[in-house]
């Protein structure tokens, strides 16, 4: 061991196949980061765990609490640790008893009390008490998955926007609260509403013309957006909004093709082209079956540039070939079942469809 550098010993302390005698030696090394790595090793023997629990370095003790080998029965003891960081680790532990949460509720550090407020096992009575605590604590309360709806409604009216932001970002935020926060004065709060995947269509629609582009960015990326909302956002004056629209899984192929080949922004076109290349053959099969082809005009008249020409112009020859192959395969399948059928590929026949 004496021949190894400190860095080598740090790496060795994390290895799952490090021998017991080596782990014992590393657990008493003067370097606290080596001992920390031993503490975090999932194969750390129980006897070493019990030794490191009382290590003089808070970094090591904190690592022990986070370790899968940490014995939960010692949570109560370490909840009195001199380091507030260790106490935070204890109070964020999934198995932390509710009585420990109650005892530590008056800890002098707001970040410690925040861990109590956001803990799923926090009693409702304690949540009501923490409702009047520091804004850091109230933010944690807003993140608690078991926070009752009546407390969420109170937090949605909190004077500090960080608290309202935490509420707006909850995946289970009640629609009534989202409807309230959609008109919040703070952009970050509305942005959280716009990005909430459980947000009702009516609330999302209200954000289409939001003055803050960041809100519209979040909206355009939200997979809860309907086609109607995306069709309005795909002409947004901010190119970043349109770029986000191209990545939305709900955007139909037609507007995506248009954006990938005709948008005024290079970034939008590149993003759209990247998404088009990620589409599998089954997507294009449905596209061709719906009556579209490489000869479909991209404009409103038959003299407009065709889809095939537009794809080739922007370098999407791979997409062109996929559509061509799908159309040919469908033509062959139809020829096998229909006598005297025109065998020219569907992709090359004049299309009556328009973009």
From TrEMBL:
InterPro entries recorded: ARM-like, ARM-type_fold
Domain of life where this protein originates: Bacteria
Protein name per Swiss-Prot or TrEMBL: HEAT repeat domain-containing protein
């Amino acid at each position: 061991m004496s021949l190894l550098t400190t860095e080598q010993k740090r790496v060795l302390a994390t290895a799952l196949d490090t021998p017991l005698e080596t782990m014992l030696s590393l657990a008493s090394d003067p370097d606290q980061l080596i001992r920390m790595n031993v503490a975090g090793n999932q194969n750390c023997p129980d006897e070493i765990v019990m030794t490191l629990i009382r290590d003089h370095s808070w970094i090591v003790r904190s690592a022990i609490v986070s370790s899968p080998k940490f014995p939960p029965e010692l949570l109560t003891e370490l909840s009195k640790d001199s380091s507030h960081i260790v106490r935070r680790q204890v109070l964020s532990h999934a198995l932390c008893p509710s009585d420990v949460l109650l005892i530590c509720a008056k800890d002098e550090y707001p970040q410690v009390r925040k861990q109590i407020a956001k803990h799923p096992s926090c009693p409702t009575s304690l949540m009501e008490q923490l409702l009047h605590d520091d804004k850091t604590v109230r933010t944690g309360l807003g993140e608690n998955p078991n926070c009752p709806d009546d407390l969420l409604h109170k937090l949605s009216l909190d004077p500090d926007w960080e608290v309202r932001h935490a509420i707006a970002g909850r995946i289970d935020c009640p629609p009534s609260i989202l409807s309230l926060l959609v008109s919040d004065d703070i952009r970050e709060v509305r942005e959280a509403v716009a990005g909430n995947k459980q947000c009702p269509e009516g609330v999302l629609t209200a954000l289409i013309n939001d003055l803050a582009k960041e809100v519209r960015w979040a909206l355009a990326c939200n997979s809860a957006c309907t086609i109607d909302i995306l069709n309005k956002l795909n002409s947004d004056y901010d190119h970043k909004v349109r770029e986000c629209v191209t990545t939305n899984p709900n955007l139909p192929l037609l507007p995506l093709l248009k954006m990938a080949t005709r948008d005024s922004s290079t970034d939008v076109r590149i993003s759209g082209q990247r998404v088009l290349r990620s589409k599998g053959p089954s997507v294009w099969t449905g596209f061709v079956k719906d009556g579209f082809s490489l000869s479909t005009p991209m404009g409103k008249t038959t003299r407009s540039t065709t889809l095939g020409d537009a794809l080739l112009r922007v370098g999407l020859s791979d997409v062109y070939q996929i559509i061509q192959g799908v159309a040919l395969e469908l033509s062959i399948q139809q020829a096998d079942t229909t006598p005297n059928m025109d065998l020219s590929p569907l992709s090359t026949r004049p299309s009556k469809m328009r973009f």
